[in-house]
Amino acid sequence: MELFIPSSVVPIGGRSQPWFGRSCKTALRSKQECYQAWAVASVTRDVNTSTLKKKYNFASRSFKRVIAKAKSEHIGRIGEKLVRLPSGTRAFWSLAKAVQGNFLKRRKQATKQAQSWYCFLCKEDRVADMRFCKCCGVYVHEECVGLTAEDKKRYMCPKCEN
């Protein structure tokens, strides 16, 4: 059984993000720098605007992956702490109650946020079967690249194939 502990559980109070460490800050800085470069290029109508937008999108996806990994590691640490605490202690029951109280509410929100279906070929965000490029990490709709669910080969986008 997978241990699910919402990241809002510990510490209680305020808008603290204890999982937001050095790797998250570095990824955020990279995302912000790419956004700034793209924004300046689009205002000045630079010829490299599309390239900078792609870099920003890649940095944004990378940032999301780093955040997800950091939250997962933080949740794992909370789970380890919960296992180590004696079951009769106040600390154990306080943490266990917080986890139980947030379980259903947080799970529904996470499910809604995880449903992004943006295709980098047709530039649409719609529900369809997706493929992931093993080289550059972009997602595309199977129908946009002429594949079906029966095709089991690992996908590589046209940009990476060349």
UniProtKB/TrEMBL annotation:
<dbReference type="InterPro" id="IPR013083">
    <property type="entry name" value="Znf_RING/FYVE/PHD"/>
</dbReference>
<keyword id="KW-0863">Zinc-finger</keyword>
<dbReference type="InterPro" id="IPR001965">
    <property type="entry name" value="Znf_PHD"/>
</dbReference>
<protein>
    <recommendedName>
        <fullName>PHD-type domain-containing protein</fullName>
    </recommendedName>
</protein>
<dbReference type="GO" id="GO:0008270">
    <property type="term" value="F:zinc ion binding"/>
</dbReference>
<feature type="domain" description="PHD-type">
    <location>
        <begin position="116"/>
        <end position="162"/>
    </location>
</feature>
<dbReference type="InterPro" id="IPR019787">
    <property type="entry name" value="Znf_PHD-finger"/>
</dbReference>
<dbReference type="InterPro" id="IPR011011">
    <property type="entry name" value="Znf_FYVE_PHD"/>
</dbReference>
<keyword id="KW-0479">Metal-binding</keyword>
<keyword id="KW-0862">Zinc</keyword>
